[in-house]
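Lab notebook page, bench 4
Experiment: in silico fold of construct C2
Operator: M.H.
Input chain length: 110 residues
Purpose: comparison with the prior construct
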Amino acid sequence: MKVIFSHGKESGPWGSKIKAMADLAESKGCEVDSIDYTDLVDEPDARAERLIAVLQQETGPVILVGSSMGGVCSHGGIGAMCRTGAVPAGAGFANAWVREGVLCFQSGAD
């Protein structure tokens, strides 16, 4: 399982919040990645496009975690992938939750 983090507007890819969550994810046996959006501060659509490009390269189950604007972009990226058919039929994003202000989606196999 891989966890992909998307940081907020005024943060960076390896800020303290993401480092803490990455440590937890790694302790549970997950692979972690954090996308750098620092060049796209006020461009949520471009952030979602970058996330989609990353997700299209993934072959296994992924959990998306986004904080603040990163959560909005994670949600928008998944919605765009579903609307454009970039998500294969049956792939589904059935598991979604918010925990302490963090929007999470889970895709892929159990």
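Observations: The chain has three helices and five strands. The mean pLDDT is 75.
Next step: discuss at group meeting.
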